[in-house]
Amino acid sequence: MSAKPPKSLLTYAVIYLIFLYAPVMLLPIFAFNDSAIIALPLSGFTFHWFSLLWETKALHEALYNSLLIAVITAVGSTTLGIFAARAAARYVFPGKRGIVGFIMVPLVLPEIIVGVALIVVLIQLGLSLSAWTVIIGHVLICTPFSVAILQSAFNNMDRSLEEASMDLGESKLGTFFRVILPLVAPGIISSLLISFTISLDEFIIAFFLTGTDVTLPVYIWGQLRFPARLPAIMALGFLMVSLSFFLLLTAEYFRRRANRLTSNHTRSNNGIFQ
């Protein structure tokens, strides 16, 4: 029977959540405010700022760029993550820990350092800044998250299923696509959603590497110079935060489902062989 957490820990958790989410809660408050001035008390309730978003062509272009970059980044980083996580979970080779640790380095590097380093390299290579340069930067920072998620999925997978497939005459490639990938599919979906969310919300690297293809966070930053547009930005921020929460909750659901599926397969196979 698990012990109840101490009151001091609960108090700390509540204070931490208030500190973390109190600024976010201001978004819906002022997004629906009838006044163009961001101040209390509120003057009324309106959907005007949301309807204004549909009339802004520059916003639509930024949204399209962000969605395109996020989709390509999610697919690219998840694809790289599948191969890296598979190698780390299944095989033993010299320098394995060092290589995996090197892949995870972008998790601890400040994004501004990554952005400056990438822009210097790209300029030296003679590449012009565009949506593709932003994709390169986003794949770099999203791949470690994909590897972490997928490595857990591969580690929890029952290897006896893979061995049974190969004993029945299936090739390694066929086993990978017909047995292994379906088992880790929830982890793959979780990786796609996490990478998509990170890329969609990322600002620093996009700010350094974007050219004329402005992303949504860079567009929002540019609009902050105009006080009259702040209510519409608050409405846009509310929509982005809501979408991010939904995607993260969905990703967590699939991550836990992957762990349950692999655990159930392991228990059922252990029961068969006992």
Structure description:
- The protein has 274 residues and is mainly alpha-helical.
- The protein has one domain (56-273): Orthogonal Bundle (MetI-like fold), CATH 1.10.3720.10.
- The protein has helices spanning 7-31, 48-53, 57-90, 96-103, 111-124, 131-156, 159-167, 172-183, 185-201, 204-209, 216-223, 230-273.
- Helix 3 (57-90) packs parallel to helix 6 (131-156), helix 3 (57-90) crosses helix 9 (185-201) and helix 7 runs antiparallel to helix 8 (172-183).
- The radius of gyration is 23 Å and the shape is globular.
- 30% of the residues are buried.
- The mean pLDDT is 80.
Please, what is the average pLDDT? 80
Query: What is the SS-derived class?
Result: mainly alpha
Q: What is the H-and-E element order?
A: HHHHHHHHHHHH
What is the distance, rounded to the nearest whole angstrom, between the alpha carbons of the first and last residues?
29 Å
Helix proportion:
over 70%
CA radius of gyration: 23 Å
The CATH superfamily is MetI-like
Instruction: Show unreliable segments.
Output: none
Query: What is the count of helical runs?
Result: 12
